[in-house]
Amino acid sequence: MAEAHQAVAFQFTITPEGIDLQLSHEALRQVYLSGLRSWKKRIVRLKNNVITGVYPASPSSWLFVVIAILATMYTRSDPSMGLIAKIQEDGLDKTGSMSMQCQTVVSAVLFSTLLWLSLIFTMKLCLKQLLSYHRWMFEQHGNVSTTTKVWMLVRIFSGRQPLLYSYQGSLPNLPVPAIKDTVKRYLESVRPLKSDSEFERMTNLAKEFEDSLGSRLQWYLKLKALWASNYVSDWWEEYIYLRGRGPIMVNSNYYGMDFLYVTPTPIQAARAGNTLHAVLMYRRRRIPGTFIPLCAAQCERIFNTTRIPGEETDTVVHWQDSEYVAVYHRGRYFRLWLYQAGRMLSPREIEYQIQRILDDPSPPAPGEEKLGAFTAGDRIPWAKARKEFFSSGVNKRSLDCIEKAAFFVTLDDDEQGMMGDDPAANVDRYAKSLLHGKCYDRWFDKSFSVVIFKNGKNGLNAEHSWADAPIVSHMWEYALATDSFQLGYNEEGHCKGDVNPSLPQPQRLTWDIPKQCQEQVAQCLAVAQPLADDIDFHVFAFRDFGKGSIKKIKMSPDGFIQLALQLAFYRDRGMFCLTYEASMTRLFREGRTETVRSCSSESCAFIKAFENGEDVEVCRRLIRNASEKHQMLYRLAMTGAGIDRHLFCLYVVSKYLGIESPFLKEALSEPWRLSTSQTPFQQLELFDFVNHPDYITCGGGFGPVADDGYGVSYSLIGEKIISFHVSSKHSCPDTDSHKFGTQIRKALHDLLQLMTINQSDAAGSEQNHSSKTQNKKEL
């Protein structure tokens, strides 16, 4: 094969006269350029490490300190109080080759460097103390305490634009909450969900745990918190994600969507060209930080990362920057190089290479087409098959190519998006396709897989163990905006630029899949396919109003939506349920997520009053109490005072000690029938909702956590749109994603009407409440 020969730097043959070397100058040139690019990347990494290492100072501040010390010495002052002379006397130049003036200058530079390092260390300590202060989150606008005003001095230490990792060394460690506080908050969270007798029994279990086993387990957690950067994250990654032996498809992976209303180009190869180039631009650029310092540890594993199956536990493996992607099309796997001679391919060149793959008529090898089903099924069969069939030879080389790729790409033969005679139903199918596809045409173990559909629509599927959705969402927002507003397309819909026809062909991966392995692939597919078919999805963009209208009634948009979800679930099922809302803990080093238990006594009191037709003013007071309670729970979760991660870690310690705790076992086994998450829109500056209102992404979604519950992901897009992704299971007779979506719409309208109704309309509103109550009874 031509491309294989081009990869060989030299050939040799043994003759009677000796060894005859046949050097390939072009191949050697490519080796030289690749090495040059590698060294450039090392230099850039070293530079960034220096910049982030001295933050909040800057490297140039060293020169300022040196000049200041030398200047004061020139005025015959000694700012070192004799230390410079001491350095000079202690044998700076024992050989005597340096003049006295030179020794003085060198001693001054050494002293200046030590002084500079001491200042940096002091500033980092001060910054860490400032970042440990979180009371500012609990204070009302316009009523800021003196302590918080002093805390705003953090701006002084953030004078220059921070880089992505600038704050890493200054972030505080996640604190371990007190046992009594966690137990108290837990009992408050379950009070509206249990009868008096059940709550009394749970209170007794909690009291017994707090007075006996709890303090012993807490001691181990405090010890870990002193030793480790984060007492939760490593156990969370291992026991919640990597030790799960069931399928990660649907159960763990999640997806992100393209623009909802527009497709920048209908040409599949062109869309792939711009999308892949934009993703590579994101990897290459120096991502600036923000004023609010967040841990960026998860960003390190966006690219070149794969989840490797194991019989007992999986592992997440990360490699150095890869220069290619693995591509799947019509049952074949390809390696597509995205760099040539140290240069990143242009969008037009990537389009040209993608088109070559699309035009390739070769059929899949036996067993190749559905090989990806291994990553969709149970983990133990995949781990055993990987060890038996992919540990050597051509299969190992091809599998290594996929796992070490920068990311995975699927060129899908289907058309997806909001189209056709039934656009709403097609969007639902689009979501299902991104979540699970055909169960074998995605590589679910990769950190993320980009999917390019036949009609130019795109999307992605992401593995969950290595990072949470905001990390992937940040990258995907940048890719979408760069694709449409920076790179663009020509009039024919192709990528802009010229094509280099001398680019080598994409490399087809080869396999030798025996019959026994093919049978195991079929068994994994038989596990994954029913799981995928059981998912009921409903995706919709709520455009009647958005966070702009919610802020006008002086309520938290997130709290408003959470109350609407509680009301919708109560109307759908006639009951309240334990509700999971994901909150981030990235204010702390290596922080990931914490749970906000959105179903509270305050939210239940409001919903009961509202559904029973109570007075408007009473309902308004109750909804504000519920919203304020939700905001308090959210702030507690963000500042390390949540409930569930603490209980989880206590449970892990109890398992290590071989001790059973009835309280922990019951507390952690309660089902989350309503699992919710807000996908934040993080880079509004990249989009123009005024001039390009249709260029909005609908966010992303995930599968249901409980078999008899709902998964709800939502995004606040601009000021006027809220997108929802609702998932459930067809096999449960009590759930229906479309019906629940209708309830969400109605709940949103009812809550806004409650908060905006005029006093003169109060009587009519009470009558409406009464009619709602009557309708509920009839149902």
UniProtKB/TrEMBL annotation:
GO biological process, one term: carnitine metabolic process
InterPro entries noted in UniProt: Carn_acyl_trans (IPR000542), CAT-like_dom_sf (IPR023213), Cho/carn_acyl_trans (IPR039551), Cho/carn_acyl_trans_2 (IPR042231), CPT_N (IPR032476)
Record-annotated Choline/carnitine acyltransferase domain positions: 174-745
Pfam families linked: Carn_acyltransf (PF00755), CPT_N (PF16484)
Residues covered by the Carnitine O-palmitoyltransferase N-terminal domain: 1-47
Active site positions, chain numbering: 464
Family as reported in the entry's similarity comment: Belongs to the carnitine/choline acetyltransferase family.
Lineage top rank: taxon: Eukaryota
Keyword vocabulary terms for this entry: Acyltransferase, Fatty acid metabolism, Lipid metabolism, Membrane, Mitochondrion, Transferase, Transmembrane, Transmembrane helix, Transport
Sequence intervals crossing the membrane: 50-74
Subcellular location: Mitochondrion outer membrane
Membrane topology, as annotated: Multi-pass membrane protein
Functional pathway: Lipid metabolism; fatty acid beta-oxidation
Reaction(s) catalysed by this chain's protein: (R)-carnitine + hexadecanoyl-CoA = O-hexadecanoyl-(R)-carnitine + CoA
Listed name of the protein: carnitine O-palmitoyltransferase
Stored SUPFAM superfamilies: CoA-dependent acyltransferases
GO molecular function, one term: carnitine O-palmitoyltransferase activity
Keyword Transmembrane helix part of the UniProt annotation: yes
Segments for region (Disordered): 759-779
The protein's Enzyme Commission number: 2.3.1.21
A cellular-component GO term for this protein: mitochondrial outer membrane
Compositional bias annotation for Polar residues: 759-773
